[in-house]
Structures are given as structure tokens and as C-alpha cells.
Design a protein that fits this description.
Structural class: alpha+beta
Largest sheet: 8 strands, mixed
Bound molecules: inosinic acid
Shape: globular
Helix content: 25-40%
Oligomer: single chain
Distance between the termini: 11 Å
Length: about 200
């Protein structure tokens, strides 16, 4: 199998920087979709993070014949039946600002306290190999929905995601701190270990 280059199916520069940092010691080049010359968008119409990540990785692997990684992530709020879940980016519409989405979640949790506000960020990384094998790894970051929006870093739902063990909101973490703790960092590090085993086999 060709291991000199793997493609990470994303157009997001922040995610690329993170995966390149984590995969550095694997000794492979990580290409973005753009660098691989791919412009198609794969529809994410699955009902689980695993389904969506696998769908994306397989579609790009079939186009390129390379090892392809893809991710899917989102926020699960237990008191809201794990919403917004796989619909996190689409929650209330793609064009709705995260300030409005975050305020809506805070309103929907009114009257709930402490553990009743439990939530987690989930990330699934899928790898599709040219020989047809598919692997997935999953990372989570556990926390609670806070009572306000706080912090200037991060993106999306970070300003309402409170980390009780660290005593701060996710948007108050620096990028380095977030990568250490985050669902995506955890799933990527697990995937790196899986790829190492395959590469050495
Ligand atoms: P996707 O995995 O790029 O499709 O993103 C899913 C959505 O989940 C994002 O658009 C955000 O709304 C949310 N999300 C995923 N990870 C994070 C995070 O680390 N912080 C804040 N929001 C996140």
C-alpha cells in the first residue's frame, strides 16, 4: 500500500494544521482535498458520526486510490436527546450565527442545573484504505453546557461548553490546550496508532 501520502478529506485549514501536527511522526505527507485536486463535496446524510465519516473517506478513496481520512463531529446535549448531534453544523440552518444557536441551547436548558446540563463533543475519524478496509476511531470531550457564552478562542459551540475539571469554558482554552483535550485530538491520536500498526505490518 502507498504510505507516502494520505489525504485528509477536509477544506478546513484549522483541522489540517491539527492533523499535521499530530501525524508528524508517522512519516507521511498529509494532503488536503484541494492539494489532491479534488473539488467534489460528499453529502453527509448519515444518522451517526461513524456513517458520515466513513461515507466521506470512502468516496474520496474511490476517486484517488489513496489512503483517505475523514472526520465528523458535533455536540451532544443529554437533556436535549443528544441534539444537535450529527446535525451540529446544520442546527437552525447553516446561515444562523453561532451566537443565536448558542443562545437557543442556553434557553432550552433553562431550569436545569449541574449534571442535568451534561454534554460532550464527539469526533469520529474514519480511514478508508485502497484495499477496501475501513477503520474508525472515536474521541469525546465531556463537559456541561454553561450558563452564558464565554471566551474568545475556538469556534462553534465552544463559548457555551464548560469543562468542570478545568473550571473554564472551551472557548477560553488556547489552541494547544484544546488540542490536548479535544475530541478531535483524541480521535486523531487513536487513528495514528492504528495507522502505525498497519504501516508496520
Ligand atoms: P464537522 O465535523 O466539520 O461537520 O462539524 C460539525 C459541527 O460540530 C461544527 O460545525 C460545530 O458546530 C460543531 N463542533 C464540532 N467540533 C467542535 C468544537 O471543537 N467546538 C465547537 N463546535 C464544534
Amino acid at each position: 500500500m502507498q504510505w507516502d501520502t494520505i489525504i485528509f478529506a477536509t477544506g478546513n485549514e484549522g483541522k489540517l494544521r491539527e492533523i499535521r501536527m499530530i501525524m508528524e511522526d508517522l512519516g507521511v505527507r498529509v494532503q488536503s482535498l484541494k492539494e489532491a485536486g479534488i473539488t467534489i463535496e460528499v453529502e453527509e446524510n448519515g444518522t451517526t458520526f461513524e456513517e458520515n465519516a466513513v461515507m466521506k473517506a470512502k468516496a474520496i478513496m474511490e476517486l484517488t486510490g489513496q489512503v483517505v481520512l475523514a472526520d465528523d463531529s458535533g455536540l451532544e446535549v443529554d437533556a436535549l436527546n443528544k441534539e444537535p448531534g450529527v446535525y451540529s453544523a446544520r442546527y437552525m440552518g447553516y446561515d444562523t450565527s453561532y451566537h443565536v444557536k448558542n443562545q437557543t441551547i442556553l434557553e432550552r436548558l433553562e431550569g436545569k442545573t449541574g449534571e442535568e446540563r451534561s454534554a460532550r463533543f464527539v469526533c469520529v475519524i474514519a480511514a478508508a484504505l485502497p484495499d477496501g478496509r475501513v477503520l474508525t476511531t472515536r474521541g469525546t470531550m465531556e463537559g456541561q453546557i454553561g450558563y452564558e457564552e464565554k471566551g474568545e478562542h475556538g469556534f462553534g459551540y465552544d463559548p457555551i461548553f464548560y469543562l468542570p475539571d478545568d473550571g473554564c469554558y472551551s472557548a477560553e482554552l488556547s489552541l494547544e490546550q484544546k488540542n490536548q483535550l479535544s475530541h478531535r485530538g483524541k480521535a486523531l491520536r487513536l487513528m495514528k496508532e492504528e495507522l502505525k500498526k498497519l504501516k508496520e505490518a
